[in-house]
Design a protein that fits this description.
Mean pLDDT: 88
Order of helices and strands: EEEEEEEEHEHHHHHHHHH
Radius of gyration: 20 Å
Structural class: alpha+beta
Number of strands: 9
Strand content: 15-25%
CATH superfamily of the largest domain: Regulatory protein AraC
CATH architecture of the largest domain: Sandwich
Distance between the termini: 30 Å
Low-confidence stretches: 1-15
Strand order of the largest sheet: 1-8-3-6-9
């Protein structure tokens, strides 16, 4: 997940996020997300880190491993690493959440002690399954919200030694949820579909500068083109063409903001080979021309 929902600040249109959350020594980052009529969607993505989210207000639908989970104020979401997920708001609604995205090495999954082997590593490897959503009525929910509140306060204050206490609170998180591990795992069919979508999103990102044929993407999934287009729209929240264009626009914006690319180079490097079309869709999205965006940097 990501900081506030201005797509100019941070791309939500990444398949496997090419973003490091925190750094190697402190692999953790806090993000605030606002879904509204203006920015109603966090498209499907996944990352190597786990994610701990608290819905502060409003409601939305999380799509996790291709299943829908309506969530509302007070609900807590815990996602293991490498889970495909997205979120979408309801019409005329607004959702505000706070999240910690953290690598499982932070609480100690890479260690060789009993805690890492018995509790942390099985969660990281999805060998043990927990509910993705702990609703506001769940018995452990008050403890999880208390943990989140304390984590937020520590993260924002950064008082001396706060890293130690934050680490201990993440260990407490796993202590709190452990009694609620599930016997039933995600269905094989759902997991396979999720993996297919990951492959498609990876392919799009790797070939963004080149023409991308729907037939090629459908072939990756072993679907017909018509079935693939329905599959993609259902689980990503937009058509494949809309997704590719949005991702290309986001890349073009980032290249222009770097100050190292001309308008033409940014367009071609993002997969736009028709400049008039690029100008038109760029202005529609960002309410300025590419040249004006470049001038802002200069």
């Amino acid at each position: 997940m990501c900081a506030d929902m201005d797509l100019r600040d941070r791309s939500f249109l990444m398949k496997r996020e090419g973003v490091r959350h925190g750094d190697r020594l402190f692999p953790l980052e806090k993000y605030d997300v606002v879904l509204s009529e203006e920015f109603p969607l966090v498209p499907a993505h996944w990352h190597e880190e786990a994610e701990f989210t608290w819905i502060r207000s409003g409601s939305c639908v999380y799509h996790i491993d291709l299943c829908d989970y309506p969530v509302g104020e007070g609900d807590v979401i815990l996602l293991p690493p490498r889970v495909l997920h997205s979120a979408g708001s309801f019409p005329e609604s607004r959702m505000v959440s706070e999240s910690f995205v953290f690598h499982m090495n932070f609480p100690g999954a890479s260690g060789s002690d009993l805690c890492s082997m018995k509790y942390l590593r099985p969660f990281a490897n999805r060998e043990v399954q927990f509910p993705y959503v702990f609703s506001s009525g769940h018995s452990v929910n008050p403890h999880l919200r208390d943990l989140m509140s304390r984590l937020i306060k520590l993260y924002e204050s950064q008082e001396e030694g706060y890293e130690l206490l934050m680490k201990s609170l993440f260990l407490e998180l796993f202590y709190r949820i452990w009694p609620f591990r599930l016997q039933k795992t995600v269905s094989v069919s759902s997991r396979e579909q999720s993996e297919k979508l990951k492959l498609v999103l990876d392919y799009i990102d790797l070939h963004l500068e080149s023409p991308i044929a729907i037939s090629t993407l459908a072939e990756i999934c072993c679907f017909s083109e018509s079935h693939f287009m329905r599959f993609f729209k259902t689980h990503v929240g937009m058509t494949c063409t809309e997704y590719i264009n949005a991702l290309r626009l986001e890349r073009a914006w980032q290249l222009l903001q770097s100050g190292r690319y001309s308008v033409i180079d940014a367009a071609f490097s993002s997969g736009f080979h028709n400049l008039s079309y690029f100008y038109r869709v760029f202005k529609k999205k960002y309410h300025m021309t590419p040249k004006e965006a470049l001038t802002q940097v200069e």
